Amino acid sequence: MVRAKRLVSKGTRLSVEFLLGLFAAGWTEQQVLENYPTLSSEALRAAFAFTAE
After folding, report:
1. In this structure, how many other beta carbons lie within 10 angstroms of the beta carbon of residue 18?
2. Three-state secondary structure along the chain?
3. What is the dihedral angle through the alpha carbons of 10, 37, 4, 2, rounded to the nearest 10 degrees?
4. pLDDT tens readout for residues 1-53
5. What distance, in Å, lies between the first and last C-alpha atoms of the chain?
6. Radius of gyration of the chain (CA)
7. Residues 9, 46: contact at Cβ < 8 Å?
8. pTM
């Protein structure tokens, strides 16, 4: 089994664990996308889909 913190969003160096931590800290999707312009909303959805499995 692969641990979530090792998985990164394609084309970025942002781990799934890091992204989930931003949301846990109260960030909105808009804030994440504004602060990390290489990230797409599709990539965020993929991260959530992975963790839901």
Report:
1. 16
2. CCCHHHCECCCCCCEHHHHHHHHHCCCCHHHHHHHCCCCCHHHHHHHHHHHHC
3. 10
4. 444 445 666 667 788 888 889 999 999 999 999 999 989 898 888 888 888 77
5. 12
6. 10
7. yes
8. 0.74
Q: What confidence score (pLDDT) does residue 36 get?
A: 92
The rounded distance, in Å, linking the Cα atoms of 7 and 46 is: 11
Any idea what the Cα angle at residue 50 is, between residues 48 and 30, rounded to 5°?
20
Identify the pLDDT of residue 8. 64
Q: Which residues contact 50 (CB under 8 A, 6 or more apart)?
A: 4, 7, 16
* Residue 14 Rama label (left phi>0; alpha psi -120 to 50; beta): beta
